[in-house]
Amino acid sequence: GFLASVYALSGHVADGLSLVEEGLRAPAHWQALIIGHLGEVYMLAGRLDDALASASRALTLARERGQRGYEAWVRHLLGEIAAYRDPPNVEEAEGHYRQAMGLAEELGMRPLIARCHLGLGQLYQRGGRPEQARTHLPSARTMFRDMDMGFWLEKTEAELRKPR
User: Fold this and answer.
1) DSSP character for 27?
2) What angle do CA 110, 116, 136 make, to 5 degrees?
3) In angstroms, what CA-CA distances link 133 with 13, 46, 90, 162, 163?
4) How far is CA 140 from CA 114, 116, 149, in A?
5) I need a labelling partner for 35 at 20 to 30 A (CA). Which of 20, 24, 50, 122 fits?
6) Is 21 helix (H, G, I), strand (E, B) or coil?
7) Which residues of the chain have pLDDT under 50?
8) In sequence order, which ranges of the chain are alpha helices (DSSP H)?
9) Treating both helix axes as pointing N-terminal to C-terminal, what angle do 31-44 and 48-64 enclose, rounded to 10 degrees?
10) For the whole model, what pTM was predicted?
11) How far is CA 80 from CA 15, 22, 29, 119, in A?
């Protein structure tokens, strides 16, 4: 699942999709995570309805099994899917990002908190709310820098350089 997401994020969506579909045969404990990765790859492939179905299923599994870390990650993914739409569903995306961030803060999941800040910043930037974007994007940049997460730091800095 993780390798599938890396492939998809680096532009090799077909390879990522193939890998994550193989992962669906994983033991039950991993199913929420693998199905979540499938949703992420579908989103990156532009298959938003499939992405939403997979992410919703992953959320149900994570909640049924008490897997709060997976739940936080999948809520972030649901925010990404809502934000990825054209036009973005701002209210839905914002709600999912905030729920993900709340859980991530409880669980000490700093990388996910930073990704939520980035997602909210991008969402507000696209939605014409630059003041709110300027709150979240610098927070994401600081967190990614502190955690030495270069890939996400570059994405955040690119977002900060975009004209307002």
Assistant:
1) -
2) 100
3) 28, 25, 13, 11, 12
4) 5, 8, 11
5) 122
6) helix
7) none
8) 2-9, 13-23, 31-44, 48-64, 68-84, 90-107, 110-126, 130-146, 150-161
9) 160
10) 0.84
11) 21, 24, 24, 7
